[in-house]
User: What shape does this take?
Amino acid sequence: MALAEFLQQLDDLASAADQAFGSAGDSDSLEAARVEYLGAKQGRLKAVQKQMGRVDPGDRRSAGMRFNQVKQQIEAAFQAATERLADGGSTVQQGAHFDHSLPGTPLRVGRLHPITQTIEELKDIMGRLGFSAAEGPEIEDQWHNFEALNIPHEHPARDPLDNFYLSSAEKTTGDTPLLLRSQTSTVQIRVMENTPPPVRIISLGRVYRPDTADATHYPMFHQMEGLLIDRQVTMADLKSVLRLFAASYLGGDVHIRFRPSFFPFTEPSVEVDYHWNDQWIEFGGAGMVDPNVLQAVGYDPEEVIGFAFGLGVERLCMRRHRINDIREFYKNDVRFLHQF
Ligand code: DAH
Assistant: This one.
């Protein structure tokens, strides 16, 4: 058999099958069409396949390739018809039984993820306090994630068990592997390296730590980093900014408490707690930027001073909406997501 003849048969079959599946108005006629075209023994596709052995040997390769394409096309038409019928059996394609007076299938309107909504709101609140939003990369080098933040080589925070270091060769510069950033404090460094003081920024984004997921941990979460650098800044300014922020986000009746703590990049350092609904809840860390950090980015610690803070975005959102399991955010279950 000539190749052209075989291809013609395939084309005819493809359009006949398209027509049959496209016009199947119920599951019985769809099943009948399936048996007719895709039936394993007597189906028309099978019949054409049997012809392939009669195509001139030199042309069999082309014949086979075209056969596979048509087969996929017919299977896709069947699949589409199956989905169309499962979706309510509309017979729009055929037009014959279409009742124009029926109400349409309502479209499901999507919405922004609750974390995205939270991020937008936090930017808005901090924007009113004069902070502009800065961004940094999620794949970081050791300098921005640790070194410049005054976290020395032997510090436990750099432990491979506590970080996602990248092993691929092209992501590795010499003997200092890159990593998924473990904190948004990296953006403090990037901004200060590129901007002369004064600085007043926030940065909202993802951070990564190899934690096992449970109700309060997830290997990826979001932080809001804040940084303010100027000539005369005190911890009272830090406390005011965080209190105004909390009052805006959680409501006017929030109280704020500082507990002494330690972070390599701030001195002194504090944990920030908010009192809300009769409970003290820890939201993150803060402090006055360590002179070593200012020096690392080329600022003069005799000239400028500032504060920094880092808060957990999920935690804020969970408090506000009384969500008790962080994993809900990342299951992508619309029954959860559509509540926000
Ligand atoms: N980077 C810290 C963490 O991920 C949070 C933090 C603490 C950020 C104190 C700061 C800060 O800017 O001053 O645990």
Q: What stands out?
A: The longest helix spans residues 60-86.
